[in-house]
Amino acid sequence: MSLLETVERQTGPEPRWSVLWLHGLGADGHDFAPIVPELLRPGWPELRFVFPHAPVRRVTLNNGVPMRAWYDLRNLELDQRADETGVRESIAQVDALIAREAERGIPPERVLLAGFSQGGAIALAAGVRREAPVAGIIGLSTYLPLGSSTAAEATPGGLATPIFMAHGQLDPVVQEAYGVHSRDLLQRLGARVDWRVYAMPHSVCAEEIRDLGDWMQQRFLAG
């Protein structure tokens, strides 16, 4: 399996932590690169932000139009929404990128795995299944795919990983209820989920970025 192409931003010449950030449906790795200066805080360790491009595939719910997607969307219902084959392929691709960070000197315990919408779905699914847990999982405006198999496949280390989930109360693309359902499932499995909601649509807002920065700072201090 070849590594996905990525966009990278470093905050210094010798990064000690990595943030692997997955974009949403139809976007690409450039989409969230501008968020880097908005997140940064004085005193943080040097970081490498890695923004991969999802593969191009046909998306059923978008009339089969090819676009960058982490998996096919086949149905609007939560339990049938995600194409299982695509989800598992994307989990493997994320694991390969995390392995590359280890080769570059940043082990999984100093990696934050983040994503928005479809990217957040993969971040959640990949993060709780890892044998070598990451430092934290960030899911923005998203849900947990393959929920029925998560209980059997999640690892103790994956479920012990701190999770930040945030959702817009006015989201017309991924209903807030999907996020709530996924939060509740993860909590029933024993995960620690920091859950936030904002008066926004399917997007990010300044308050959310501030709260996420606070949460990331806690991870850096703990590490």
Q: Care to describe what's here?
A:
This protein has 223 residues and is α/β, with parallel strands linked by helices. The protein has a single domain (6-222), classed as 3-Layer(aba) Sandwich (Rossmann fold), CATH 3.40.50. Helix content is 34%, strand content 22%. It has seven helices and nine strands, in the order E-E-H-E-E-E-H-E-H-E-H-H-E-H-E-H. It has helices spanning 36-39, 84-103, 118-128, 147-153, 156-159, 176-188, 206-222; strands at residues 6-10, 17-22, 47-52, 56-59, 65-68, 111-116, 136-140, 163-168, 193-198. The strands form two sheets. A seven-stranded mixed beta sheet has the order 1-3-2-6-7-8-9, with helices on both faces. The chain has a two-stranded antiparallel sheet with strand order 4-5. Helix 1 links the parallel strand 2 (17-22) and strand 3 (47-52). It is globular. Keywords: Hydrolase. Pfam families: Abhydrolase_2. This is Phospholipase/carboxylesterase/thioesterase domain-containing protein. Residues 17-216 form the Phospholipase/carboxylesterase/thioesterase domain.
Overall domain count: 1
Q: At the first level of CATH, what is the class?
A: Alpha Beta
What would CATH call the architecture? 3-Layer(aba) Sandwich
Structural class: alpha/beta
Order of helices and strands: EEHEEEHEHEHHEHEH
Q: Judging from the principal axes of the Cα atoms, what is the shape?
A: globular
- Straight-line N-to-C gap: 31 Å
Strand order within the widest sheet?
1-3-2-6-7-8-9
